[in-house]
Amino acid sequence: MKKTFCLLALAVLFCSYTHAQMTIKTLPYPKTKKVDVVDTYFGTQVPDPYRWLEHDHADDTKAWVQDENKVTFNYLDQIPYRAEIHKRLEFLWNYEKYSAPFKEGKYIYFYKNDGLQSQNVLYRQLGDNGVPEVFLDPNKFSADGTTSLQGIDFSKNGDLAAYQISEGGSDWRKVIVINAEDKSVVGDTLKDVKFSGLAWHGTDGFYYSSYDKPTEGSQLSGMTQFHKLYYHKLGTPQSTDKLIFGGDKTPRRYIGAYLTEDERFLVITAATSTTGNELYIQDLSKPGSQIINIVNNFDNQHSVLDNVGSKLYILTNIYSPNFKIITVDAAEPGITHWKNLIPETKNVLSATTGGGKIFAEYLQDATSLIQQYNMDGKLERTIQLPSIGSASGFGTKKEEKVTYYTFTNYIYPPTIFKLDIETGNSVVYKKSGVKFDPEQYESKQVFYTSKDKTKIPMIITYKKGTVLNGQNPTLLYAYGGFGISLTPAFSTSNIILLEHGGIYAVPNLRGGGEYGETWHRKGIKLKKQNVFDDFIAAAEYLIKNKYTSKDYLAVSGGSNGGLLIGAMLTQRPDLFKVAFPAVGVLDMLRYNKFTAGAGWSYDYGTAEDSEQMFKYLYNYSPYHALKPGVYPATMITTADHDDRVVPAHSFKFAARLQEYQQGTAPTLIRIETNAGHGAGQSTAQLINGQVDKWAFMFWNMGVKW
């Protein structure tokens, strides 16, 4: 009784904070200098007074970052319930987390986090009943937990492993080779590896991809153009690695490579953008064999799934925007010889193989439908999933009898299932330990109408019994680009919103891949406005149906989704109360001047393409579309080591938004240090970022905690 009384007393005290009783004392925004820089596009002069903020390595930029963070954290520190949100989220986050296991050599490997460890630890054990031992602990890579393990690849026999590490969240990686048995280092560490897999050929060496590191300006923001595929032979210096493909003759390519499981074929993909690729193979069983081109254009996407002898299994969307699987003999691999194995359907197809089977992973209105086929293309069964949601995994080696997959949705914490490939029976292998009761919540899919009458799906999640009175704090999150599909996934952070009567809504905007390449292309280049219109319509649907109202609506998105939120701030600042543009592409006239940004032109187009394309980009580019006016409470987020979407986008946008804000709502930028585009952040960084998001959102909505 005494304990209950104390908890109630604390709750009353905590909920007693109101905006009437407390006002946050804000620091003045930094006085951001302006420079006289003007670019001319097709006769139009475009001023860029904050160009100097693109120089992330400059002392004045570093000083500006420190000043902005001082303003931001001074504001956040004064939110009275921020510490309580942190305490609650840390409690929720503190449970054991596992990955699905995978087999290499005689060992079973899996990732595990005890709860609040900075990075997930890689374990291994002998057989299903073996005693787990630590194989690699990234928490020991650096003192602050910001050096992360970003992938590991084993030789076919499992004797050797090559793993990649990222320092401070950068996309530039180091590769370390070890003997898997005793974990001793083999040979030298490879440096300056970027956007690469590691493909072993026997135990002699492996293939990898990288760029020449920029020699001028910042190594984090400098343009990278010539991706190259190398072969590294163990025991030799990296400087002598053999160039296999790419380089000066193939500029602005993304080069990837992998081997078929039997190591007979080297498969090479070359792309000029994030959509479409050339496809090549090399028969490594024949000494001196040449690299053979299968597809010689970038109009469609193709990958080799598997092979049986010389028979190749290829996943492709040529003439089939929702993808299909074909077979062809490697001796005559041209398109004219392709034979359909699993034809296109109305649902978008991706696929993996394992146990001598093909697992066709379909998207049905942005949720998973899994079917198992034999290698002759005969449907054997539909895998029974526990609910409507997202299933991933399934792939394994040919000789395996079981495989694993993970299932989740917005109210179903990630659960690992073990699948008997022969019978199709699934059993729970690892259940999530998160402290969350799905029975208290509901998640439903609705379809709403966009500006041009297109039907858009959206999944809305909230606590059962929530009264739709327009006063529920709501977070509307979306992406809408690059053919990427947003499928239902559980978020521990979202518990903070849901358990306090909030609503989480995710629409599947055009530009994504939920309905195949056709859906993607309806949201690119001169059709990008469709993406923004779809998002606006989602917000209007939520308001019209009284899930929320403009005073209780927050909008959020990252990367390309950060562009989306930037566009919302300039096009419909009247529609919502709070905005979170994260690591966003916000300067649409110069995005292609940094790192690998030129590869995004398939989705965006560039200001140099044509006068029409320039005017279209200039019209919606968030940085350029800002005008003096009243804007919602905004917290822009970025990171000092983001070398994918360079922080200059967010820096320049924040400076101009602070200049133009004529309302009283705060305009902050939160700049994470020792972090990149998102991958590899420590648990503490992740939790702190989420805490600040919820605190900022609730406070600016006037929501009592």
TrEMBL record:
- Highest taxon in the source lineage: Bacteria
Q: Which reaction does it catalyse?
A: Hydrolysis of Pro-|-Xaa >> Ala-|-Xaa in oligopeptides
Outline the extent of the Peptidase S9 prolyl oligopeptidase catalytic domain: 489-702
User: Which PROSITE patterns does the record match to this protein?
Assistant: PRO_ENDOPEP_SER
Q: Hey, what's the signal peptide range on this chain?
A: 1-20
Query: Which keywords accompany this UniProt record?
Result: Hydrolase, Protease, Serine protease, Signal
Pfam families given in the database record: Peptidase_S9 (PF00326), Peptidase_S9_N (PF02897)
Q: Does the keyword Ubl conjugation apply?
A: no
Which InterPro entries does the UniProt record give?
AB_hydrolase_fold, Pept_S9_AS, Pept_S9A_N, Peptidase_S9_cat, Peptidase_S9A, Prolyl_oligopep/macrocyclase
Q: Any keyword Glycoprotein? A: no
Using the record for this protein, list the coiled-coil segments as residue ranges, or answer none: none
Q: Which residues form the Peptidase S9A N-terminal domain?
A: 31-431
Protein EC: 3.4.21.26
Q: What parts of the sequence cross the membrane?
A: none
Protein family per UniProt: Belongs to the peptidase S9A family.
Q: Know the name of this protein?
A: prolyl oligopeptidase
